[in-house]
Amino acid sequence: xxxxxxxxxxxxxxxxxxxxxxxxxxxxxxxxxxxxxxxxxxxxxxxxxxxxxxxxxxxxxxxxxxxxxxxxxxxxxxxxxxxxxxxxxxxxxxxxxxxxxxxxxxxxxxxxxxxxxxxxxxxxxxxxxxxxxxxxxxxxxxxxxxxxxxxxxxxxxxxxxxxxxxxxxxxxxxxxx
Amino acid sequence: xxxxxxxxxxxxxxxxxxxxxxxxxxxxxxxxxxxxxxxxxxxxxxxxxxxxxxxxxxxxxxxxxxxxxxxxxxxxxxxxxxxxxxxxxxxxxxxxxxxxxxxxxxxxxxxxxxxxxxxxxxxxxxxxxxxxxxxxxxxxxxxxxxxxxxxxxxxxxxxxxxxxxxxxxxxxxxxxxxxxxxxxxxxxxxxxxxxxxxxxxxxxxxxxxxxxxxxxxxxxxxxxxxxxxxxxxxxxxxxxxxxxxxxxxxxxxxxxxxxxxxxxxxxxxxxxxxxxxxxxxxxxxxxxxxxxxxxxxxxxxxxxxxxxxxxxxxxxxxxxxxxxxxxxxxxxxxxxxxxxxxxxxxxxxxxxxxxxxxxxxxxxxxxxxxxxxxxxxxxxxxxxxxxxxxxxxxxxxxxxxxxxxxxxxxxxxxxxxxxxxxxxxxxxxxxxxxxxxxxxxxxxxxxxxxxxxxxxxxxxxxxxxxxxxxxxxxxxxxxxxxxx
Lengths: 177, 484
Description:
The complex is a heterodimer. Chain A has helices spanning about 1-15, 20-40, 65-70, 110-115, 150-155, 165, and strands at about 40, 55-60, 75, 80-85, 95-100, 120-125, 135-140, 145-150, 160, 170. By secondary structure, chain A is α/β, with parallel strands linked by helices. Chain A has a single domain (about 20-170), classed as Rossmann fold (3-Layer(aba) Sandwich). The longest helix of chain A is centred in the first third of the chain and has 19 residues, at about 20-40. By secondary structure, chain B is an alpha+beta fold. Chain B has three domains: about 5-170, PAS domain (Beta-Lactamase, 2-Layer Sandwich); about 230-335, Signal transduction histidine kinase, dimerisation/phosphotransfer (DHp) domain (Helix Hairpins); about 335-484, Heat Shock Protein 90 (2-Layer Sandwich), CATH 3.30.565.10. Chain B contains nine helices and twelve strands. Chain B has a five-stranded antiparallel β-sheet. A five-stranded mixed β-sheet of chain B has the order 7-9-10-12-11, with helices on one face. The interface of A and B includes residues 3, 4, 14, 37 and 75 of A.
């Protein structure tokens, strides 16, 4: 019952702050957090299992407070989830999920080439992101947010995406250059 | 017929059937309950398992709000015909997808309820958390299943229970009918024997013994009892036989004795009669010649001689009276009886008149109750009344106001005649001598008499089958009672 009350309370809070954009990024924030649960990163050492799992945002943050609210206090197993915001590619250190803001649209190929072969799940809502070599792209489909996944890119970066996640996404192959 | 009066066979069978029926009923109820509970638990576990599998596969659909995928996942429920509804709720508690697709509010709760599996309104409903890898909750899976499986199991188990119950009751009845005889037969045999013994009074019958249990002991005891009764009966019969023989012997003896007595009596009577008769002739001579002497030779005798002759005459006359009385007594016993209705009051008055005529100088007050009647021989009864009234008259001779009463009263269902005087009376110590021949309680000088009268009276009363007795005290008068 307490859980139910909490849920309704949360829902009403969310409804209060709802606006078209807010709603969209609210959902995207949840999705971004949910990716963590459906993706496996290669383990380097045993110490990894206690280190924080980092979700990074490159460029201007479109989520407002939503992503902070979503991630606050969450853990994946024993690993706490941390949120980091980067202005430049060079700032990116240890990172598991990287959301590339639309503000960086022009730099996407450069960013991806920097991240090449690093086990970072790259996510963006920029058009043609997967075509450019990004891993997951948010696509708007009649007011719903759909996923588009470049599986090859993920495999190349040694990031394993759960078949469950693949099941709810559109899998694309980038054109060979 | 009330159960109390049922035959023991039926009672035993009924008890056995009742017990086995109850046991079977309880067992069947337990069986059915077990089946139903087990089935409910089974479908609950099934639903839980199914729910968890579905929840595991629907994580991504919930995580990324993919309705199409969620609907497809839920559509798998169609392969279980018992599943009636299903739904996926997202984290906010809103419905993402339903089964059947587009199901209404009647099938799908508007919001998820607490996790768990429970029976609600004839359905089994389950709310399962959906989470990926044990981390944050993504939403809730709802599945509702019908409980036809439980109903089917209930029906099947009830049918099985009924069939088993029927067969078992039949078997129990057959067994009870076959085995109740072990208990009822000895009792029935005992009852039959007891009835035979009591109705036919045949104590030689014996109850058959079936075993060495309590019933066997009862049978033994009963048979022993019968044996003892039989012995006692035989003993009693022997005693009775012996008694009869003895009575017969005694009767024979008594009859012989009575006959002897009769013979002796009649001989004695005949003897007395002939003696008395024969004595009269010489007595008459003595009296006659004494009279001749007194009349013809009076001058030649002196006074002493005349006095002696007077005495001879008086004595001989007294002896004649005595002989007359004895003859009367003998006649009383010999005379033939003629029974008729006799008016005793009139008879008594005639006698009193005679007495008063013979002795007018005495004024005795005779009181005679009227209408006293009796059945008997008039001649003999006159002798009785004459004797008793004359006695009364005689023994009141020294009273200033002599009085003699003749009455009758009802006593102990018979008529008792009473002749009562206020005369000299007698000592009750000698009452038994009163009715003997020549037995006198007063001297002849005091009151004249022969001592034969009351003996005669008793003989007459005896011949009439009656009884006579007397009550008195000295100088208090005497009462003579007799029945006829």
